Amino acid sequence: MWKDFITSGGRSTLEDPDFLRLSIMNVMAGAGCVAFLLFLVLDSTGSFGWSTLRIATDLLGIALTLGVIVGLRAGAPLGVMAKLSHLALFVLLLLLAVARGESVLAVTIPLIYPAPAYLLLDSVYRASIGTALMVLCLYAVILTNTGGFFEDMVAVLDGALSITLAMAFQAAVMALYLRSRQQSIAWLKSLKDTLAFQSAHDPLTGLQNRYTFDEVISREMRRRSDDRLFAFLMLDIDSFKAYNDTFGHPEGDELLQRLAKAVQGLFNRAEDHVFRLGGEEFGIVFRPRDRSEAALMADRLLEVIESMEVPSPGGPHRHITASAGLLCRAPGPGPDSETIYRLADQAMYRAKETGRARWVEANDEKRKNDGTH
Ligand SMILES: Nc1nc2c(ncn2[C@@H]2O[C@H](COP(=O)(O)OP(=O)(O)OP(=O)(O)O)[C@@H](O)[C@H]2O)c(=O)[nH]1
């Protein structure tokens, strides 16, 4: 029940950065509501002597604190509620000091202001201005001596000094805490983004990886209301081992990077996805109008790769080739990523077996017409 109350019925969790603000609003509003109810009973029974201002303050306090609790539970925006709660806190604390100026205890209640103000506003700048304003208002309360508590100037100076020290010290601690909290949250967020990017991409080429491939395929298979085909092209560089052995691994890495850029240059529509699925193996998911457009794209891809210049130290330029497997299917629900990968992989291996530098379509084994290179 307690947890349900401070989270506004499960609206926030401990891992959520807004958990602190939400729970502070609920705890303060709850405590404030109980305190104002108590004051209302005491004021209306004349325990402190009759005062319209006090009764009005108590009623306003109950209305505002209940409003915060109900508003948060009803799903009101957290940022807006935090600002409103801060405003209510400022006004009520000040009203309490004015309405009960005869009691030193009541005048010191506003000293609690800086801590919740910094947390609610989540801004060192705004909360510092709020604290300075509160200090000035309390000076005014003391100087005007509304309740007649402060007998002489020494008592006034004493009060002003106590208020200044207490508020300034609290504000400094809160500002430090808030700054380090904000820095930690920003650091965690950027770490989370970096990890999410790294887990989805290949570090060498920056392309999406096998993990993302599975996600993209399952998303594509759920896609509806699209009359274009689903096409998957699996590509493998021919004799890459020999390339590495001849030019060295760093040259091999560079070739992979250049090839990744070349593939991205050709498949550059918003809905295209280019993956590095393994060592020298790439995958492309695209949405052609029909099979002939898919075949055209496969032809173009092999041509682009064959036209890539490969620097050969001390010798003539060499050219590389690649083999591919193409899978086309009608849009709508279909097999999982494993099956799609396997079918295209089988087609790609048939392209290797039958001479390389070509593509083969999955299922019907149609060959690229222009033969080997
Ligand atoms: N430079 C570099 N080489 C890699 C990387 N990942 C895998 N390789 C190399 O890719 C080569 C793949 O060799 P194989 O599987 O025999 O294939 P292949 O030589 O291309 O022969 P075919 O595919 O049959 O045409 C191996 O030499 C791997 O070391 C990489 O990230 N960088």
From TrEMBL:
Task: Show the InterPro entries listed in the entry.
Answer: Diguanylate_Cyclase, GGDEF_dom, Nucleotide_cyclase, Rev_trsase/Diguanyl_cyclase
Which cofactors must be present for this protein to function? Mg(2+)
Q: Where are the transmembrane segments?
A: 20-41, 53-75, 87-112, 124-142, 154-178
Quote one Gene Ontology molecular function term: diguanylate cyclase activity
**Carries keyword Transferase?**
yes
Kindly name one Pfam family recorded for this protein: GGDEF
Does RNA-binding show up as a keyword for this record? no
Q: Which domain of life is it from?
A: Bacteria
Catalytic activity reads: 2 GTP = 3',3'-c-di-GMP + 2 diphosphate
* Enzyme Commission number(s) of this protein: 2.7.7.65
Q: Where is the GGDEF domain?
A: 228-364
Q: What class of enzyme is it?
A: transferase
Which SMART domains does its entry note? GGDEF
Keywords for this entry? Answer: Membrane, Nucleotidyltransferase, Transferase, Transmembrane, Transmembrane helix
- Protein name (database record): diguanylate cyclase
